[in-house]
Amino acid sequence: MAETAESNLYGDLDTSVPEIRLFALLPSPQPNAPLEGQLQVVSLHSPPTYESLSYAWGAPEFTQPIIVNGQTLLVTPNLDSALRALRHEEITRLLWIDAICINQRSPQERGHQVTLMRTIYSRCERDLLWLGPNIHIRESDYSNPSEEHFGEGMQLMRGIADKDISVLGVMGQKFASYKRNRLERLLRIWKKQQSEKETPDAKLAARIEQKEAELSSTANDSAWLLSYNEQTALEMVLFSPAVWDRLWVMQELSLAPKIQLVGGRHTLDWDIISGFLGDTPYADAFHGTYSHHTVQPCVERIFEVVQKIDHQRRIMKEVAAGRRESKLMDVLARFRDTQSSDPRDKIYGLLGLVSGEINIEISYDLTPQQVFSSVTAAIINESGNLDIICQRPWTSNTGFISFANGQESSTEQDRLPSWAADFSKGGQIHLFAQRSIFQTGRPSCKVPCHVRDGVLHAKGTVLGQIGPILQQDYLESSRQYADTTWMPLEWLKLYLGDDALSASESDRPYVTGESAFTAFWRTLVVDCAAYPMTRLTKNQVEEEDAAIRSKWLRKLNEPTDPETESGYDGEAFINPGIHAMWSRITYDWVFSITTNELYVLVMQPAKEGDIIACLDGGKVPVVLRPLEETSSDGKKRYKFINVAYVHGLMDFGAEDSTALREKLGLEDQEFWLV
Fold first, then answer.
1. Of 585, 439, 575, 609, which Cα lies nearest the Cα of 526?
2. Cα separation of 118 and 645, whole Å?
């Protein structure tokens, strides 16, 4: 926070009006002249024309003096640099700046001003996004761009957005050359493989024909490849500056009517970036070379953050027009990887982007644990389901809240209940039921949810108990680097034995009536194909089942040398979409069989003895750990571990499950999650 040697700089604001302070930055023709300004108290009902400033505070080093209302206020070097760049030579500039306009020493005022953020940024004339540089940044450091870097990147962005042929022509030639070289190399390999076969391979011949057709059409490609220097120039503006990691900036940029990026003396209007991103076919045609020389669309890398912001800006416009809602969980998930020094701001800093009424108290007197628990409950009540538990992209292995410095808190008051989302940590959604692909539990849960002393009451059904986990590599950190091509066959031998490949449905039926082998491989790919994620059709199952039975038997009976086997012949699955699903889940999941013979996929730290349940309002099954402790009234308590896949029961809540319930002996029960 900004610091001052005087205690009477800030008077009380009238919260009933409501009031804010604006900072009038006085002009000076001398760049090195002391920074001076005045604070003005104004009503948000009829404020004067003002601009807002978005920037990264940087390290909490309040070393730079500015004069405010005749008193000395110490600010960070980055804010000092921004004010010097923004100061006019002859006219006063009226700004809203959080570090100056809010009394950072008052938790009550901070909490109240947070409730006004949506209005503050919505009513400004424009938001100025300060990229840098500041006086303590090394220009040679890749992550800290210089003023010249900003100029180069902004000029390139304008040329791309304007479809300047002098810029695009060279990029197009590079992409065509790259694609031709890659296709020619692939064709040489495949044609050599075909020539060495005694009988021509029809599938390989079809692939060769397809790639030859692609090669002949490369001259007509409308695609562009950025050079390393061009990629770097864009990253210096749109990726590298620390401001793109700051959580508060996400809200500020999403709400402001206009945005101007400022890098030293260089500027770039957001509308130029937004127009480029909105031209989807054109934007997607730009590619860059990344690790191991892979070519990927730039929108997925360089423009990743600005695309999220632009998406939220479009949503807010639809919200204002009454055409859409902006839900709390969606907003928190979209910006989950941004940073804030106070973990509570992972919530408070984004509430201005949520439409509708939400029952969340903004108070810095609450602990992070209290905030995160109450927000998780609020999301359950808002949605009427348990997506925040079953589908949350926030991970926590310890239960302790993480702070901006990466350290875990060490006090019991900051230990989260296992069911509450740790919003201080980013992560990924491990099962994609947010697309309504699965519906294991009943569609909704009772709301308002019942939480007492940190314990959440839920209802549902125990599906089974996890049996032994036989894979030796399950706990090995190096597993992610292992060759997973034929791991499915190895797991099959561990759990079902070699004879499962030739057994029929009648010999070894699964609970669904299909063969054990069919149920096994469908479990390994969560019964889906990619991309996009879709459930397997009956035809896909029949075709894949016959093909991989034959292939796995051949592999089992006639092992080949892995050094000479080509990638084309070596993939365990035939259908590319099904193999893509296996590649997606292979590093996180492990197969097991429950004590009642259900095939499941689970993740660490799930272990033998944990139960798998479907909860009312949960689209996917969850892993729960029974605890020895019970409440005073004898109610059994559980710890939430993570989610699971259970083959044959992923549609348990969307169809009549009476027969399956009776067959497995399943009954509803209550759960108390701690």
1. 585
2. 40
Helix (H) / strand (E) element for 64: namely strand 64-68
> Which ranges in 102-201 belong to alpha helices (H)?
107-114, 117-122, 147-161, 165-196
333: nearest Cα among 384, 393, 378: 393
Element (H, E) at 612: strand 611-615
Give the dihedral sign, CA 644/649/654/660: negative
Residue 514 φ then ψ, to 5°: -85, 170
Contact between 526 and 585 under an 8 Å Cβ cutoff? The reply is: yes
Cα–Cα distance measured from residue 560 to residue 564, given in angstroms and rounded to the nearest whole number: 8
| 117/362 Cα distance (integer angstroms) | 12
Please check the confidence at residue 199 and state whether its pLDDT lies above 90: no
- How far, in Å, CA of 380 to CA of 425, rounded? 19
| Residue at token pair 């480029």 | 276
Instruction: For residue 39, report the phi and psi dihedrals to the nearest 5 degrees.
Output: -90, 135
**Could you tell me if 475 and 469 are in contact, meaning their C-beta atoms sit under 8 angstroms apart?**
no
The answer to whether 36 and 71 are in contact (CB under 8 A) is: no
**276 pLDDT band (50/70/90 cuts)?**
very high
What's the mean pLDDT in 510-517?
93
130-135 mean pLDDT: 78
Q: What is the pLDDT of residues 487-506, one digit of tens each?
A: 899 999 999 998 888 876 66
CB atoms < 10 A from the CB of 504, how many? 10
Overall size of the chain counted in residues: 674
And the tokens for 392? 């949350």
DSSP annotation of 298 reads G
Pairing label, strands 36-43, 64-68 = parallel
- pLDDT at residue 591, as a whole number: 96
Alpha carbon distance 454, 358 (integer Å): 20
Number of neighbouring beta carbons within 10 Å of residue 240: 21
DSSP string computed for 527-561: TEETTTTEEPPHHHHHHHHHHHHHHHHHHHHS---
- Nearest CA-CA partner of 417 in 374, 386, 385: 374
pLDDT at residue 400 above 90? no
pLDDT of 139 reads: 39
Distant-in-sequence, close-in-space partners of 399: CB < 8 Å, separation ≥ 6: 415, 416, 418, 422
Identify the CA nearest to 328 among candidates 366, 277, 278, 372: 372
Contact status, residue 671 vs residue 611, Cβ threshold 8 Å = no
Q: Which residues of 84-122 are buried (b: 16+ CB within 10 A; e: fewer)?
A: bbbbeeeeebbbbbbbbbbbbeeeebbbbbbebbbbbbb
Contacts of 604 (CB under 8 A, 6+ apart): 474, 475
Two structure tokens written together for 379:
């999301």
**Cα–Cα distance measured from residue 561 to residue 540, given in angstroms and rounded to the nearest whole number:** 30
DSSP state, 47?
P
Question: Across 264-342, where does the E strand assignment appear?
Answer: 266-269, 286-289, 295-297
Q: Is 594 helix (H, G, I), strand (E, B) or coil?
A: strand
Phi, psi of 551 (to 5 degrees): -70, -45
For the segment 349-379, what is each residue's pLDDT rounded down to a tens digit? Answer: 999 999 988 889 899 999 999 999 999 999 9
Among 645, 593, 596, residue whose Cα is nearest residue 440:
645
* Whole-angstrom distance, CA of residue 129 vs CA of residue 135: 17
Residues 6+ apart with CB under 8 A from 207: 190, 568
* Neighbour order of strands in the sheet with 590-593: 590-593, 599-602, 645-646
Residues in contact with 665: Cβ distance below 8 Å, sequence separation at least 6, in sequence order = 596
